[in-house]
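Repro:
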Amino acid sequence: MAFLSLVAAEYIPAKTIVYQNFAESQINYMLGDRGPNNPPGRSYVVGFGNNPPTEPHHRSSSCPAESNTCNKDADGPNPQILYGALVGGPNNNDGFTDDRNDYIYNEVTTDYNAGFQSAVAGIYGRYIAGDLQNQS
């Protein structure tokens, strides 16, 4: 939704600030901005922000670098840090358990990571161009 909001902000000038602020709020939530919409104030991006996920459901980050075997059921953080990857995130009540075996909330997939990275790039592009209108 954040990326689509940035696209809409380009084509509906009367709603530019509304759509842009919505996109920023969504990205800030994912990055762990504490507030009424993210009471735990935790990041859902691996390797970034406050209390980020350390056990994403992702095969290659779950395996040791120098091993012929991979134990996805091992306790503790993944041996490889998948910097910048967005995990599935919390449930409807902002509950989240950082557990690589819970693929519903911890899986790293292409679909939402593409939207996330596109929205981050869009916000950055607006900032660099001087078009960022922050009037929250």
